[in-house]
Structure formats: structure tokens, C-alpha cells
Amino acid sequence: MNLAELTPAQIDAMPAINACPFCGSSDVHVLNNGTPYYMLGAWEMWVTCYGCRARGPLATHQGIPQGTSRETIMALKPAMERAAIELWNRGVATK
Ligand SMILES: [Zn+2]
Q1: Which residues are CB-contacts of 44 (< 8 A; sequence separation ≥ 6)?
Q2: Where are the domains of the chain?
Q3: Which of 47, 48, 49, 63 has its CA at 20 to 30 Å from residue 18's CA atom?
Q4: What are phi and psi of 74, to 5 degrees?
Q5: How far is the centre of ligand 1, averaged over its atoms, from the C-alpha of 21 (Å)?
Q6: What is the rounded distance in angstroms from the CA atom of residue 78 to the CA atom of residue 49?
Q7: SS3 (DSSP) at 45
Q8: For residues 2 and 55, what is the distance between their CA atoms, to the nearest angstrom?
Q9: From ligand 1's centre to the CA of 87, what distance in Å?
Q10: How far is the centre of ligand 1, averaged over its atoms, from the C-alpha of 74 (Å)?
């Protein structure tokens, strides 16, 4: 998913997270790979089910150069979360 194609209105309209397609749990959460990785230029988010550890496809942002300010990075967070949720909601999670 190319995050640059999302408009601010699309980013604001955060979708609800579907229940897990494997176990039906609604104990599902958006996780990300954290500071050390996104400072190297790739930031990944995905949805994981805490009931059965199923994991949705990765939403990846590759275009973050080293030295980007924390404010700039945090401004990308809603788009990343939206992308991860939309991928999860396609029901193609893996275990
Ligand atoms: Zn599950």
C-alpha cells in the first residue's frame, strides 16, 4: 500500500479492526517494529491477535531517511495504522 496516495480525510477515517479470522477474538492490536528499525528507513506495522497470535500482512513505509524528526515520524502514524488495519481486515492473516 502506497501511503502517499492517502488523503488526510482518508487517514482521519480510521477503520474498525475486524475480529480474528482464525479464532474470532476481538483482542487484536496494531503493533510496530519500533524506533531502531524506522530510523533505518523502514517502519512496519501489523495487526496481531492476542488470542491465537495470528498476524496480518505488513504495512511498510520505506521512505523515512535517518535523522527524520520524531514529529514527522509520528505524523505518519495514523496512515500506518490505517494501512495495517485495512490489510488485516482483508482476512488474509497468517499464523
Ligand atoms: Zn486469533
Answers
A1: 32, 33, 37, 58, 59, 60, 61
A2: 25-95
A3: 63
A4: -65, -30
A5: 7
A6: 20
A7: strand
A8: 20
A9: 15
A10: 28
